[in-house]
Amino acid sequence: MDGATPIPQGTAYGRQNPTYDASLTEVGTGTPCGEWLRRFWQPIALSGDATVRPKKVRLLGEDLILFRDRKGRPGLLYPRCMHRGTTLFYGKVEDEGIRCCYHGFLFAVDGTCLDQPCEPDHGLHRDAARQPWYPLEERYGLVFAYMGPPEKKPVLPRYDVLENPAPDERYVAVIGGQGATGDDTFEIVPYSWIHMNDNVMDPFHVQVLHSTFTVVQFVAEFKVMPKCDFYPVEDGVCYSAYRKLDDGREMDRISHWMMPSIMSVPSIFFDAGPSTSIGWVVPADDESYFQVNVRKSRDNRKFSLPIDGKLWHERTDEEKQDVPGDYEAQVGQGKISLHSEEHLATSDRGVVMQRRMLEQQIKLVQNGSDPAGVIFDPAKALVHVRSGNFFRAEPKREPVPAE
Ligand code: FES
Ligand SMILES: [Fe+2]
Q: What is the pTM of this model?
């Protein structure tokens, strides 16, 4: 029709119902992603959090009770007592384990029932059932749990960047929320673990969210838009962000994401050399996670910088609008991001590489194989972490011709 007003295109009317990718986000028992995640040791608490006061923890969609018996052994038990089902949260911890508050069944850290005080001879049949439990190990000031099939239990890896602390170094571990920045923590972050996991292979947001869009949250050297190379490695994906600095030096800032959800990024303080820290994104359930960071340190320096002198949790909504950070960007994606609505671009190639690797590995486990990144041979337990700020060799200068 000549002269007719053009019909506007692309309005919000009639759009499809959006969906998320369940295969990458659902972490419960029996889900493909959940079974893959259960094949790895997961850090679940600081060692100091496992005490004689039982503590509720939520991991991969399961509610559990963490405690430490009075002989110093940490334990992680299914909360419902195998007798008549009250919670062990109200139990009392003793030398040998935790005693249920209701009829006094005593459970060791491996779920063995040691005493049934209301039964003849303290329970002639107390071996008949066991309180469901998960194995734990401690390292770097953290408690790690293995929640997968017992016959597939790998060794707990060691990470070269965390090994051999100097005499004046110690492990500084924090557990908490977005960014896990020490004092600046959320106990549980209220959205899917995959939001944070994607973020690890997304260096371009540093130059926008953390620089131009807000105030510079990183040191000045990182303001320069990098040239990024992404490449798969045997246990994950790396990227190298190349920068030519104002003083002529050239630097590769290498980040390493290791399966299942481990990240090691270089110092934001521009310290040269290998990274000295590692972080884990641990799903509490489909819609929440917590983050665990540990590093070798000679000081009490925090993991990130405060903005305008305030930590994230101290800021008002208006202040967060004015200067949004990772938490705002990721909580803004919803409880689980709607993948059907995404339009991935060239700057997402690291995220795409990472998600493809996740899909492949999850399928491997579904088909009965062992995933990459789990280690069964104790002699091979040392993992090489590739991240760091590495200067390239000085370019050779042409000799100045004699006058
Ligand atoms: S319910 Fe725990 S001992 Fe009875
Ligand atoms: Fe970020």
A: 0.90
